[in-house]
Amino acid sequence: MTALQYKLDTMKARALTEEERAFLAKDDEVFVDTGEFNQTVLAPGWCDAAPRTGATAVKTIYGARGLYEKVYVPDENGEELPLIRTAGHRATATVFVPDMEEGELQERVKRALRNEFGAGLVELWNLRTSPTRDLRWDVYFERKELVSVGGPVDGRGQLHWRVVERDCQARGVRDGHHRLFMGKEPKGWSISFELHHPDVSGAEIL
């Protein structure tokens, strides 16, 4: 197993004054304390919002968001502080391989990574597999409105939710993949999954 060496970089930086922070614009590059250690350790990031009074909204390159009263910028005359450097990137993927057993799928994924990147280099943090049913779905976004139906009952009108607009997002999506659409529907719309029925021509076959 190859030994992986990690180290902290250092940089000379100074904290901006409150007046200086007021001039920061969205997406300006800055550095902030990670807050994870018993000393100041900087992480690179950028302003995540327009200037505001008080704390500055920052998002680090590692995905953490927060409000910071101390924001640093490089300065040759500043204090030398530890800086977390990026060791690499994490990839998250959902892979579907038809007609393959669980054990074989895991082994072949590991072998492909080893062959591509070299033995002892890839840290495989999570490899889970689950069976997928042989079903296909049609995915729709639907917009509904309350409409009056029929006559009044007990002096009150009858209301019913009716689909007034329907937008097909995908046809024949394999079971499991339809979940990728959940939470993506526009405001005021709902999502609908229906079993996929391939269109069959009614023409005579000679």
Structural overview:
By secondary structure, the chain is mostly beta strands. Among the domains are: 9-83; 136-148 and 158-195, no CATH class. The protein has helices at residues 18-21, 102-117; strands spanning 9-15, 29-33, 42-47, 56-60, 65-68, 72-74, 79-83, 136-148, 159-174, 189-195. The chain is flat. Mean pLDDT is 85; it is low at 1-5.
Order of helices and strands: EHEEEEEEHEEE
State the distance separating the first and last CA atoms: 65 Å
Total beta strands: 10
Report mean pLDDT, rounded to a whole number. 85
- Overall 3D form: flat
Number of continuous helical runs: 2
Low-confidence stretches: 1-5
Largest sheet: 4 strands, antiparallel
Q: Which structural category do the helix and sheet elements fall into?
A: mainly beta
Give the proportion of residues in helices: under 10%
Percent of sequence in beta strands: 25-35%
Integer-rounded radius of gyration: 28 Å
Q: How are strands sequenced across the largest beta sheet?
A: 2-3-4-5
